[in-house]
Amino acid sequence: MSVREIPMYIDGQPVQSQSQEWRDVVNPATQEVVARVPFCSAEEVERAVASAKEAFKTWRKVPLAKRMRIMLKLQALIRDNTDELAALITEEHGKTLPDAAGEVGRGLEVVEHACSITSLQLGELAENAASEVDVYTLNQPLGVGAGITAFNFPIMLPCFMFPLAIATGNTFVLKPSEQDPSSTMRLVELAHEAGIPAGVLNVVHGGPDVANQIADHTDIKALSFIGSTHVGSLLYNRAAAAGKRMQSMMGAKNHCVIMPDANRSQAINNLLGSAYGAAGQRCMANSVVVLVGEAREWLDDIVEGTRTMKVGPGTQRDADLGPLVSPQAKERVERLITAGEKEGAKLLVDGRGYQVEGYPDGNFVGPTLFADVTAEMTIYREEIFGPVLCVVTVDTLDEAIEFINANPNGNGTSIFTNSGWVARRFESDIDVGQVGINVPIPVPVAYFSFTGSRGSKLGDLGPNGKQAIAFWTQTKTVTARWFEPENVSSGINSTISLS
Question: Where in the numbering of this chain does the Aldehyde dehydrogenase domain appear (predicted)?
């Protein structure tokens, strides 16, 4: 099998990097090297930014309707190429093909939302705000935007960034994850096939040096980041020091509350899918279940369901979860499982040392379940990012809310109940940015904003929805008066009155 060499994308063309530093991209189910990705030089990053800066001069003036038609073409191309994109995701990330296709669909939602740019970017108008004075706003693009994405959603996360940034008239520099870049690069090719002009969308690759250069660069006006809390906090501070607008969507510890009045099978099935799907490598995965009152008696059913989850390579369509993205990720998850055991959590299902027939070298960790977990334990304090579910029991809804609100993260939470009063009370009192009611992973549809909070988010504005339009534009307010040709001035007005 030939090994792909991942190019940069600059000035509308794939460009081979001249870097001396390259990394292997590995199929996590087999350890087969499927591609090589460069760590771009500072000069190559500078070239990409310069291309975007030059393209902004003309792109910002392209009519909204033309930008809309490009997005319409892009959404059609993504839909037509879903299977190809999903296969590339599975090959380099490891998630199952149905899950990968679902990811493409969630990314497609954002592009579809961008197709409404002709109404999304409208300003406001007050006619005759004062005598013959009109006041109106213009929502104008910022300039060069940039995005840095994590490995776990190589299609969806770039779609959270560049479609709306470009549709609002900005140009863009994207740095995808070096662990699984091929599907992202195919998405960029489709974007150019849809009609995005040269220089409007550029791609560079690399690690911390490239990310820091992007954060520091004075020609980049806004930066969107999705990834770990450690990296996101560092980049947020660097970008802010450089005077740019910044959003960091970061780590999480998501809780699923199950009330005893919930539909038992529905709640448990949804919990298991959200906890173990994609091998737990989702920032919105429910890694903690809080069983309230008599729902603690459902633990045996959760154990049984955990043991029925099927592990296999992502190409095995009946598999519930695939491998972790790398041997390092596997080692870390298994180390945290060991820590949980040592710290006194009750290990009910152990996924360490999991073997899949025919794939002896895969990064597999089986579904793992802990009971008797407390807030002081490492497996609760850290984001495991693997197929590990922690069970916490409380007596009341009040205790559940208090327990969740004490966690420093606020990305997502969910509750399963048949009581409207309980659901409304939960959504009102919980201090978490995204809430699901009988929905296990409450990632909102793309025309609503992604609204993680507290330790999971830095910056006032999140991706998608109205907040994304505000993030990628700046408001210019115009106050205008037009005099009649024969109007005679009534004299000097030295006050600030508009009368």
Answer: 16-478
